[in-house]
Amino acid sequence: MNLFAQDLIAVAHSPLQHWLTTLPAQLENWQKEQQHGELPKWLRCVAQLPHIEPQHVSLADTVTINNDSVSDGEQNRIRGLMMQLTPWRKGPFDLHGVHIDTEWRSDFKWQRVLPHLSNNGDLSGRQVLDIGCGSGYHLWRMLEAGADQVWGIDPGQLFMAQFMAIRHFMPAELAARAHWFPLGVEDLPELRAFDTVFSMGVLYHRRSPIDFLTQLRAQLKPGGELVLETLVVEGDEHTVLVPGETYAKMRNVWFIPSTKALLHWMSRVGFKNARVVDESVTTLEEQRATEWMQGQSLADFLDPNDRSRTIEGFPAPRRAVIIANP
Ligand SMILES: Nc1ncnc2c1ncn2[C@@H]1O[C@H](C[S@+](CC[C@H]([NH3+])C(=O)[O-])CC(=O)[O-])[C@@H](O)[C@H]1O
Prior knowledge:
Elements: H1 5-12, H2 23-33, H3 39-47, E1 56-59, E2 63-66, H4 72-83, E3 90-91, E4 93-95, E5 98-100, E6 104-105, H5 106-113, E7 127-131, H6 137-144, E8 149-153, H7 157-169, H8 172-175, E9 178-181, E10 194-200, H9 209-217, E11 220-231, E12 240-241, E13 256-257, H10 259-268, E14 272-281, H11 298-301, E15 302-303, E16 306-310, E17 318-325
Parallel strand pairs: 2-4, 3-6, 7-8, 7-10, 8-9, 10-11
Antiparallel strand pairs: 1-2, 4-5, 11-17, 12-13, 14-17, 15-16
Helix pairs in contact: 3-7
Bound molecules: the ligand Nc1ncnc2c1ncn2[C@@H]1O[C@H](C[S@+](CC[C@H]([NH3+])C(=O)[O-])CC(=O)[O-])[C@@H](O)[C@H]1O.
């Protein structure tokens, strides 16, 4: 069965219909050529999850789904299957009493973003795209904020399985409004159709940040809103850090601009009214190893004698949120 059949029907019934000129062929090609070797195993875990009527649902800081009569056996089954989908990086979630304490407290980032969106954070009636959405934690928060439909893309296939596991437990009405496609930003045509585009934690992974910003702008409707979150350094509009082989032990980090440089790049590609609404240093409360992500985390990426530096001697991770219009 086509994994994305329902999502493609949703595209056909949305203002994004023109996406159907490229999307079905890309997904078909992905299913034939690009599947991760472990994906069948991850999808089997999702298929084995018990079917439990969601009684209480809260899309708040911990995305929670509950039913008062869940048995210990069902809980153990959920825990065992979800553990097979580790590492869990973005969350937290609580599924029928199984608390998934992810590496990141992604709710902290949402608190830094939400108050600065237009309409006081009300996304009612909006088509929202999240580029690099990971497990899709923020997609659920966007639905909490009233979005009509939320669309996440990310090339990470484990994250897709995690999203599908969470969606499995959601009430049908919410599940039908949340979509996830295994695409990179570079796979998107110029849709110019979304009311809000989020891209958080992706810019520094791109080799060409100017092309990336251009791609983001090409997804927005006239009058839409971009929410960009990325690593930054302190400095003037000519300051950009291009780290060596690793930054905070991450291998795929290319450009870390100052906020002034980033605003300059954004104006060069045509964004209007770009403004920094938050800038903060990542704390050990926000990113840490847990039972659900037992590998190394921020504490291991910083200089043990000087927490203001990474292990490589660069400034420690500092992140900015920028809002702009196309
Ligand atoms: N070409 C690409 N196109 C789209 N996504 C990509 C690409 N390359 C990598 N990614 C994805 O971008 C996400 C970045 S994580 C931010 C998650 C969430 N947004 C968060 O803000 O918590 C932060 C980090 O890993 O540093 C991962 O899920 C990648 O798979």
